[in-house]
Amino acid sequence: MDSIEIVLIMLLAVVASAYIGRVLPRAVPLPLVQIGLGALIAAKSSHGVDLEPELFFLVFLPPLLFLDGWRIPKSGLLRDKGTILELAFGLVVFTVVGAGLLIHWLIPAMPLPVAFALAAIVSPTDPIAVSAITSTTPIPKRLMHILEGESLLNDASGLVCFRFAVAAAMTGAFSLQTATLTFVWLVVAGIAAGVGVTLIITWVQRWLTRHFGEPPGSPILVNLLIPFGAYLVAERLHASGILAAVAAGVSMSYVELSGHAHAATRIQRSAVWDMVQFSLNGVMFVLLGEQLPDIFRLAGTSLEESGHVNRWWLVAYAFAITFGLLVLRMAWVWASLRLTIFKQKFRHQPRHKIDPRLLLATTLAGARGTITLAGVLTLPMMLPDGRPFPARALTIFLACSVILISLLVASIALPRLLAGMTFPAEPEEQQEEDLARRAAANAAISAIEKTQVELMESDACIDPEVYPQAAARVIAFYEHKLKEVDPESEQAWRKTDSAERELRLAALSAERRTVFDLARHDHISDEISRKLVREIDLMEARYR
Predict the structure, then answer these.
(1) Which of residues 197 and 460 earns the better pLDDT score?
(2) Most buried of the four, 88, 159, 353, 473, by CB within 10 Å?
(3) Beta strands in 247-286 (DSSP E)
(4) Helix/strand/coil for 388
(5) Could you write out the DSSP letters of every residue in 322-373?
(6) 29 contacts 132 by C-beta, under 8 angstroms
(7) In terms of Cα–Cα distance, which of 51, 50, 72 is closest to 60?
(8) Is there a single domain that holds both residue 514 and residue 381?
(9) How many CB atoms lie within 10 A of CB 494?
(10) pLDDT single digits (tens) 339-388
(11) How many structural domains comprise the chain?
């Protein structure tokens, strides 16, 4: 019962954070509100949460990373794959080496392998934290896609570096060849597991649906289970479950292009996934806040290991490490941009100057999150000879401090840094949308004309004017959509479309109120009421 009560309390805290976030200034990101509520729960609760990192990884990360991989624009990933890979893998290794040496220099009592382990676990940016911060900040879409792609992939490289640093601390030995081969296996087998599980499950589901029909709710449940299956298969193969979940999500986006899912299933599934994303994101940060008081208390007892007795040294270490991470990230991003400009010059392409504000924004947007917390909590308690793991409490404290400081810096500095900036429009997106609308409308008109002829031939008894009149009404709707994307009258049609949207929303709202009023007075049944309201809601969703 205690566990169930804690889960319910945390879910209520997530709900409360959504309303508190609307009251507070927009500069305060939702994760910080949730961390604060988690700390409040810890202060008022008589028993805390014993966070098991392996269970945490299994329950929270697969569905969230799967959804991010599913929804991230694939064109952006492919277009900027070079930059994303440089940040996701090259920057992680650069950070581990640079920050590891900095930490060991700051805290000589912390062994070098432990310093590298701390640097490794704070090197990956958190996709949930990055999305939460960028959602309320005016940031170029292309940069946002790069940051999202980086945060999806750098978890695996950071956790691999962390694993080998911990192994070096435990055994005193490190093999670069073994580490390289293991890393390649983790990446290749993890991606293969994610793609394979997704393709196999969707093929089996289609076969069953084709032969036995589709039970209500079954496709949605199967879709929810895919990331867990991919993660577990990859872990059984000693590969990266995180990359498997991401690869499963990316594969799912391509599977969806086949169009086999029913329209009602897609609508319901989208609502379910939105709820899952909101709940798990929130609980992750509430859990982080709930863990902080105990972590801070334990860190105070480890000060002797660093040779200091003043607790303010803990704060100084945390800010120094965070600042070092920002400097390393800025240096790598600057070098990456310079390399891109050099390639453009070599290929005789138009060159772009480095915007200092965007360079700084890319640096500050690399916030850390709950993946860092879960990873650092996997530090062993003891060495093989029975001695305590060196500086374990201090390492956990510094990792959590970096999370908080990076979130604070990003949420405070980014809106002010990018305020007033005007970003170039994305004409490609509008052109692609107009092309798709025009092609879809033309295909719809052709299908209507063909179906009209087939219906008239199959039902000769009906009035011959019925089908042409019905077809004319439907075709008029699609002809209107074609006119909307006519470039010669685009502005006028967009104004007309906006006015039509407001009128339709007002009409739909009046329809819904009337249906509810009829149901309240028992003029229609609840079943009829729900059916009509669902139809109205689906129509309204199209215009929202």
Answers:
(1) 197
(2) 159
(3) none
(4) strand
(5) HHHHHHHHHHHHHHHHHHHHHHHHHTTPPP-PPPHHHHHHHHHT----HHHH
(6) yes
(7) 51
(8) no
(9) 12
(10) 777 776 666 666 667 778 888 888 888 888 777 877 887 888 788 878 88
(11) 3
